[in-house]
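Schema walk-through. Below, the input block comes first and the output block second. Nothing else is stored per chain. Lengths vary across the set, and this one has 163 residues.
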Amino acid sequence: TVSDVESSDLIVSGSSSNPILVNNTNFKIEGSGANRTLSLTPTNNEFGNTIISVSVTDGDLTATTSFTLTVTGINDPPEISSISDQTIQEDTELRQIAFSISDVETSELIISGSSSNPTLISNIIIEGTGSNRTFSLSTNNHENGIAAISLSVTDGELTATTS
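--- output ---
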């Protein structure tokens, strides 16, 4: 609630002590007269504390109040790039298909691969470090057919999969 006995033309503004967490352009002040609503939008993938200051002025004098806003972190799911369909000949290897993985908060990710048809493809080898990875596979002797290969990346809580 904002008010001024001498003026009804009040200007309300807000600011953040931590503009990386809550940018000053992300303040939304709505309403009129004494009834105002302040909405804040934190920056994506940022968390921590900031002091929010709200000021009201009638053009001559200014009143300010402040409070601490705490934005808690959440676990975002990891990401894995898509991989286009591949074709290989029977009894051969498909070597080093590149893909990438990432996670906003977790650098140690676990990657696994599986085949929908283990009679055709039973061994998927994943290599690389960091965000750039490769996988290779081979068909089992004298087998042919279709198999969906799924690669999954997990941060221990959330998982992303591509096929």
